[in-house]
Amino acid sequence: MKKNKAIITAVSNKFFPSVLNLINSIRANYDENIDIFVYDLGLSYTFRKELEHVKSVYVINMPQFCPHWRSCYTWKTYIFTKPLAMYNLYLDAGCQIGGALDATFAAIQKNGYFVIDQGVSLSDIVPIEYKRLFQINNKFYNESCVDAGVFGFDSSEEVHEVAMCTYDAAVAGLSLGFSKRDAWRNKDKDKNIFVRGCVQFRHDLTLLNIFLRKKIGDLDVSTANNILKIRMNYRRLRYVNDKMTYTRNISVTKWINRLVLNSFIVLRGCSLKLRGKKDVPYMDLK
Predict the structure, then answer these.
(1) How does DSSP assign 121-181, residue by residue?
(2) Domain of life here (predicted)?
């Protein structure tokens, strides 16, 4: 039986410090016991083991549902099709919670979704060929788009249809590609041949916005008063060293993880200094 509320995120090794910070910020500022589901996007053995033993945190394998599942945030579209509670809040691992989320979950219960303004228009992120393909109403083409890194959803038919259309389009390859200004990002796991005809193609975010507008139309856009997006800015991870509640003694695993992370942070700090930028702080080894 599904629980009433859940918070969902996803993490790779790169964002492990960020997800620790996210979990602790939720515990400190909202709810010590709410279930937090973490999709594993390629965690190391010890990183995953630590998360598996954090109280009320559940690690889920991300299925390799298509050949490009790792590329251009295609994996995120799968998460939106899998509600794990009656009311679900997906947060990117680089988010931080600064207060209660009662209003957020109330919006999900009322509307079936929770969305916040991304700050750019739909026309900036939707290629002209997508506008023709999906017959996007001109009424919405110049509206602000909403953020795919903070997205609340229930399991209602209307919202699930949005999620499934977004997922199907991503699996078909429509999440892939870069606009000309972002051609420098076309590398490594995201490497592909597609050049998208818009100011800034946003992959999962582009597709989610298309289908929210097509299936729902006018959206009740909320404010994210208590949700900060700080990504990998280690100086702003204020909860990363807070004490966690574990279901068993994992002191050795935790110590190994902090040693690995501090080694990474030292290298990152050296890189920043060489570029004339500020260093980043160490993580507590305790």
Answers:
(1) EHHHHS-HHHHHHTT--HHHHTSEEE-SSEEEEE--HHHHHHHHHHHHHIIIIIT--B-GG
(2) Bacteria
Q: Half-sphere exposure (CA, 13 Å, Cβ side) for 34?
A: 27
The enclosing domain of 222 has a CATH number of 3.90.550
Query: Could you report the per-residue pLDDT of 60-98, keeping only the tens digit for each?
Result: 999 999 999 999 999 999 999 999 999 999 999 999 999
Cβ-Cβ contacts under 8 Å for 128 (sequence gap 6 or more): 197, 198
Calculate ∠ Cα 74-77-80, nearest 5°.
160
Instruction: Work out the widest C-alpha separation in the chain, in whole angstroms.
Output: 58
| Tokens linked to 75 | 């994996």
Joined tokens for residue 132 = 């023709």
In a domain, 48, yes or no: yes
The answer to pTM > 0.85 is yes
- The C-alpha angle with vertex 217 and arms to 78 and 212, in degrees rounded to 5, equals 10
**Cα–Cα distances in Å, from 25 out to 22, 53, 85, 243?**
5, 18, 21, 11
Handedness of CA 60, 61, 65, 70 (dihedral sign): positive
**Lowest pLDDT segment from 173-177, 197-201, 227-231:** 227-231
Considering the domain architecture, whether residues 41 and 87 belong to the same structural domain is answered as: yes
User: Facing residues of 5 across strands?
Assistant: 87
Q: Are both 15 and 108 inside the same structural domain? A: yes
User: Looking at the structure, do residues 53 and 173 belong to the same domain, yes or no?
Assistant: yes
Residue numbers of the domain that contains 75: 3-229
Q: Which two tokens stand for residue 130?
A: 């997508």
User: Which residue, 199, 163, 182, is CA-closest to 76?
Assistant: 163
The SS3 assignment for 6 reads strand
Provide the number of structural domains found in the chain: 2
